[in-house]
Amino acid sequence: MFSMPQLIASVEGVEIKHVYLQKDRTTLGRSPDNDIVLENMVVSGHHCVFELRGLAEVYIEDLRSTNGTYVDGKMVKKRQKLNDGDVIAIGNFRIQFLEATERPSGFSAETMAMKFEGESTPKMVHAIFQVLNGSSAGLEMPVVKAVTTFGKPGVCVVAVSHRRDGYYVAYLDGSSPPTLNGEAIGDNPVLLSNHDVLELASTRMLFLLKE
After folding, report:
1. For the whole prediction, is pTM greater than 0.85?
2. Residue 194 three-state SS
3. Is the pLDDT of residue 187 over 80?
């Protein structure tokens, strides 16, 4: 089964839209005549456009929006190619881009559940963050969406994206950069490993993979 390029939009880690890119041009904005409508004042009437070339090559262009369009924390100043797993930020909206891929017929893109038909069925792996300190110590937060944001806006916000080869963390926003195992996280998404320690401002969280 061949899956088209797709966009998964979320707010505060809650998925709100899941769109497959089928047209040569897919517009996003607040006005109802857009292909993707986000009804929020931070979104311009016609905010940005996604251009599909070939089967999976997608470019994004900002349409002179008021608040700007950001890809992995950097403002889009001209038409640019999107890479698999890129996170687009428009105000408090986070939109993850996933390239087209060949997937087994039992794979559900809507739920991100890994189900394969046949004799050998791989074990399901679930990712969680466990809070290590503060009043919420011991709290477990599952990573169930294709992209989930954690942190406090204005202080430190990261996006954890679920890709085919694992879970990645990227620094999105805030005055206090996050660290992973004591090392600062830059603009590029970093692959998470079991028992990694992610620190957001003063909160320390343990990343765990469970079967």
Report:
1. no
2. coil
3. no
